[in-house]
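Appendix B: complex inputs.
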Amino acid sequence: MIRVTRRQFLKTSGGGMLAVAGLSGCRTSAGAIAPTSGRRVVVVGGGWGGATAAKYVKLGDPSIDVVLLEPSTSFVSCPFSNLVLSGNRTLRDLTFSYKGLRDRGVTLRHEPALAIEPEQRRVRIKDGYVSYDRLIVSPGVEFQWEQVEGLPEAKDTVLHAWKAGPQTEALARQLQAMPDGGVVVMTVPPVAYRCPPGPYERACQIAWYLKTQKPKSKLIVLDANQNVVSKAALFRAAWQAYPNLEYRASNKVTKVDPSARAVTTEFGDVVRYDVVNLIPPQRAGNIAVEANLVGNDKRWCEVDHLTYESLKAPGVHVVGDATIGLPVPKSGTIANAMGKIAASSVVSLLNNRPVAPMVPLNTCYSWISDREVVAVVNAYRIDNGKVVQLEQKLTPGPSTVYAEQAVAWATNVWNDILG
Amino acid sequence: MLLGAAAGVTLMLAASGAVAGPLDAPGYTKAFACSACHGPGGNSRAEATPVLAGMPAWYFKKAIEDYASGRRPSAEMEPFAKMVKQQGVDDVAGYFAGQPRERATTKVDRAAADRGRGAAAACAACHGDDGRGSEARGVPSLAGQPAGYLKNQMLLFKTEKRSPGDAALTQVKAVMKPLDDATLADLAAYYASLGR
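Resulting structure:
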C-alpha cells in the first residue's frame, strides 16, 4: 500500500491547481488528505447517482468540501444511447461536461478510486488517500465476464455497449458494416441488470435500423429470462411492426465463439451471427465488491432505505444501480432520486439534524422506433422505514407525445444532474 | 406585507441558526423527485413538460386532484399525483409556488406568436389579455409555459381527451374544436411568449 505525504501528493498530483484549491489545508497523519473545513464528503463515481449526489451535497450545505472521483472527463448518458445504434442520435448528443459541478464548487478529480477503507474513513487514490466524513459510492455495474465461456478473452470484439461510450459507437459501426441479409444476435442477461427495459428498447432500435436500412437482415434476441422483463405487453405489441425480430425467451447464452461467429445457449443450441451484442450478467462495480459493500449474493449492495447508508459499512452511502433491496428498477431516474436523497441525508447527518424521509419515484421511457415511445412510471411510499411501491402504470400504447415527453425528461434530468 | 413576511423568514432562520439554501425550502423533501421531469425547482427547460416554479398553489392542487382521480387522464401523472397527495399536496404545492421562476430557455417562434396574438381573442375572455388567468374564476395562467406543453394540452381539449365530460371545460373545448392544429400551435407560441 502506497502512503505519501501531503507534499509528495501535491507534487505528484496531476491536477495541481485542483489539488491546491480543493484539497488544501491537509493533515499528513496516516498520509490522508483532510479538508480545512473539517467536513468533507467524497463521492466515488460521476454517473447519474454520483454526479447528482455531489451537486446536491453542495446545494444542501456549501460549507462542506465535496470531492468527486470520476475517471472520465465527460458525462455520457446511457439513457437514449440505444438510439445511437439506429442512427437516431449521436453519442455527441448524449455527452456533457462536468463544468456545472465545478462551477458549484465540487472538486473533480478525474481518476479512479482504488479502494475504500471505511474504518479509516478514507479512499485510496493513485497518489495517496482522500479522507472523508461521509462517503457516497455510486459504483455502477461491472460485468460478470466469467459467466460466459469465451467472453473474457473476447471482451474487446464481442461488444456489450451497455455503458454508453466507445462501445456504443463501435457496435453502431458493426451494424453499418454488416451486409444486408446478415444476422444480428443480441443477448439479454438474467435479472438483475442495469435498465430493465433497455435490452428490449435496443431490440426495437436495431430492428428499426435493419428494417429501414437492411431489409433482408434479421435480429435474434436471446433472453436469459422467461419473459420480457419490463413493459412486456408494450414491447411485444411494438414488435408486431418488426417481422425481422425473432424473440426467444429462456435462452441463456453461456458461450461465445468469435472465430465461429456463434453463441451457445444453456440448452446447447448454437446460434450463428454476423454481428453480436452480448450484454453480460452484472453485479455492482468492482470497488463496491472489493470494499465488501455487497451482500451475501456477492453482487449488490444493501442499503438503509432512508439514508442509503450501507448495511455493511457505517459512513458509506451507496446509490444507483449497485443497490438492491428496494422495489425500484436500476434506472437513471431512480439513481438521480437516490443521489438527492443520499445528499440530503448526508448533509443532515453532518449537521446533526434529523434525516427527513424522502420517497423516490421512477419514470422510464423506451423508444420503440425513431419517433414513438412507451413508458412506465412507478410511485412509492415509505412504510416502517422501507420503500414500498404505491403504484405502477404503463402508457396505454406508443405515442409521439410520449416521445416529446421523453425528450423533455432527458433535457430536465440532465440539467438536474449536471447543471 | 411582503416586507413583513421577509422579516418573519429572517427571524425563523436566525432562531434555527441555519443558513437557508435551496434545499431548505419547506416542502423540498416531498417535491425533490419531480425535478427529474420538471427541472430543478420546477423550472422545466423542455418543451413538453410544464414549468411548476411559481405556479399558484390553487392550480397545482387542482391539477393533482384531477390527475389522481383520473378525471384528467395521464398514465404518467396519475401515480405521481397519488404519491403527492399521500405526502401532502399542500406542502408540495407550497414548495413550487415559492420557487423563483427562471427566465424561460425554451424558444418561441416569433412569427407564430404574432399570428397567435391575432387568434387569441376568444382565449383572452377567460385567461385575460396577459394570459395570467384568474384564481377567482378558476382559470389557470398560460403565460410563459412552454409552447410544446400548451399545444399538447390544446390538442387534448380539442379531441375531448383532456378531462372528458368535465362541465367546467365545455366552453374551452368549444373554442378549440373548430381550430386547426396550425392555429393551436400559433396560440401555443403566443402564450409561451407572454411574460418573458
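The radius of gyration of chain B is 18 Å.
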